[in-house]
Design goal:
Blueprint lengths: L4 E7 L2 E8 L2 E8 L5 E6 L7 E5 L2 E6 L7 E13 L7 E6 L2 E5 L7 E2 L8 H4 L15 E7 L7 E6 L2 E5 L7 E2 L9 E6 L7 E5 L2 E5 L7 E2 L13 E9 L5 E8 L2 H7 L6 E5 L7 E2 L11 E7 L7 E6 L15 E6 L7 E7 L2 E8 L1
Antiparallel strand pairs: 1-2, 1-27, 2-3, 4-5, 5-6, 6-7, 7-8, 8-9, 9-10, 11-12, 12-13, 13-14, 15-16, 16-17, 17-18, 19-20, 20-21, 21-22, 23-24, 24-25, 25-26
Length: 358
């Protein structure tokens, strides 16, 4: 499982790059000391190319597998997406809310400012909680390009809601109806569908059957279901199959809740084999009382049944002191989430990650 893979692990206060060789790990290097990486994503066809979003700093690219990094955008960069139809096309989201696209793999960027043409009634939702004003700005959290239609884009705002474009970013619609607390995290379509979607948020997990016109919660069996303050969900994925499995990372409340109540995240990994109608906790190989938040969930680059999960007791953006390394671990499942194994059990808090073939 570790052979011929390169691991990019964003820790509290920096990035560690490692190679898996013959069942063991070799450290390749460290970078971004004292900085918070919000997101990592790479090109599957060119695995040496990886993009890093660094909060309050900028966007970076490596073209040599993490040995060196070049700055490709100034600002509070929060996320990248590599177009599944053409890896030369890359989208980038920043704070304050703005979207960019590159057609040449990240060298030149153009703003997609049609996304800003909303009424004041929509834009008034683009705001962070009062306790974060002056410290954090609303920003783009996730950019989704539909795998069957390059023109269909969803953008999630943290905080702000769900935005849809059907013309590759020229015009946009607000698609947040049914979600009261619009602190959004991650969206995917049901496989082969252009109408059915699921989205995670700071207060609930939702489904839409009409391309986001209306959302409703699907939380039956989730811990703290129907208690929005505590039903926190973050990254998640579908796994292939006749009945596609959903694997969702969650916790008891947001980082704000953990801070106020002086508690740990009580993180968990959830599974559903019926499109979210019911959920169960993946328990084998994970601590019953998990003190960490499972922040990042990644497909294995070659094995469809395997996922990696990075966990930690820190939080991204404004939510932690990068001088405090924290505690965390990198886990793997080889059986679509039924059981988990700690690949790197003694790590600082892992905030985001990327795993690439060599």
């Amino acid at each position: 499982m570790t052979d011929n893979l390169r691991y990019y692990l964003a820790l509290n206060g920096g990035l560690k790059v490692m190679e898996g060789r013959s069942g063991s790990f070799e450290e390749i290097g460290e970078s971004f000391h004292g900085r918070t990486l919000e997101h990592l994503i790479g090109c599957r066809n060119k695995p040496e190319v990886v993009f890093a979003a660094v909060a309050f700093d900028g966007g970076y690219r490596t073209r040599d597998g993490g040995k060196s990094w070049e700055k490709i955008m100034e600002g509070d960069v929060r996320t990248f997406t590599v177009d599944p139809h053409d890896e030369r096309v890359v989208h980038m989201g920043i704070g304050p809310i703005r979207l960019f696209r590159s057609e040449d793999g990240g060298t030149k960027w153009e703003p997609l400012d049609g996304m800003l043409d909303f009424s004041d009634d929509v834009k008034k939702k683009w705001d962070v909680p009062p306790r974060l004003r002056g410290l954090e700005k609303p920003h783009v959290r996730h950019i989704f390009v539909h795998p069957d239609d390059q023109n269909l884009l969803f953008v999630l705002l943290e905080h702000g809601g769900v935005l849809l474009s059907r013309d590759r970013g020229k015009t946009w619609e607000d698609r947040s109806k049914g979600i009261d607390y619009v602190d959004m995290h991650y969206i995917e379509n049901y496989p082969s569908s252009q109408e059915r979607y699921y989205v995670s948020s700071a207060r609930g997990f939702f489904r839409s059957d009409d391309c986001g016109k209306q959302w409703y919660p699907v939380e039956n069996g989730m811990p703290w279901a129907d208690t929005p303050l505590y039903c926190y969900s973050h990254e998640w994925h579908f796994l292939p199959g006749d009945s596609p499995r959903m694997v969702v990372c969650g916790g008891r409340g947001s980082p704000g809740v953990w801070s106020r109540e002086k508690t740990d995240p009580k993180g968990h990994i959830l599974l559903s084999d019926d499109g979210g109608d019911s959920w169960r906790i993946a328990a084998r190989g994970l601590e019953k009382e998990n003190p960490w938040m499972p922040w990042v969930l990644l497909h294995h680059p070659t094995d469809a049944k395997s996922l990696f999960c990075g966990m930690g007791d820190g939080s991204r953006g404004y939510g932690f002191d990068p001088k405090q390394r924290g505690r965390g671990a990198l886990y793997v499942t080889r059986d679509a989430g039924d059981s988990w194994e700690a690949l790197l059990p003694e790590m600082p808090s892992i905030l985001t990650a990327w795993v690439a073939a060599q």
